[in-house]
Predict the structure.
Amino acid sequence: DIVMTQSPDSLAVSLGERATINCKSSQSLLYSSNNKNFLVWYQQKPGQPPKLLISWASTRESGVPDRFSGSGSGTDFTLSISSLQPEDVAVYYCQQYWNVPYTFGQGTKLEIK
Amino acid sequence: EVQLVESGGGLVQPGGSLRLSCAASGFTFRSYWLHWVRQVPGKGLVWVSRINSDGSTTNYADSVKGRFTISRDNAKNMLYLQMNSLRAEDTAVYYCARACPGDGYTPFDYWGQGTLVTVSS
């Protein structure tokens, strides 16, 4: 199974500041034929299901604010929030969909400092 | 509007069975792969199972293989998860999720609100 490891486990950032969450996979998620990374980021707020933020490592979903961005390739990926807003408080998960079983990172809890 | 509504959760004794259902609406159900994902309250997400659009292909996490069965009824727009030989460690909120269009190796774009399964004597 592909192991997904996020860092840090929790993060406190001041409003308006940048938040950065890292995700590392135990094997490459890059499909060379189409140059796509099979990596997604979800946001989960308390009492809610996860919400798809960014797919293919860097493609922001429709309606997701442009302060959210994804980067990285192969085994190392990053979710960045350029200017933290109160509504961004949540747990963020990365997930690989390269193969079955799909696996998630352990989650990163983002709070306001 | 895409909607996924789970039901069937509850309290069950170890060794017991439960069938979860997920009612889908707002999209062409028969065209999509579907998944079950579970989450122990306060903990992380764990993928459980998936099924392809016509039900001919299924996959399971090792932790549930041989005990859980995923199925679907495309005429009724329903997804199911039959859970047998339940264990305490199966206690979790179970979400159904729709995969983005594609060959099965795509992220999940819509999730239900989840149904809580508690396995306890």
In short: The mean pLDDT of chain A is 97. Chain A touches chain B through 24 residues (CB under 8 Å).
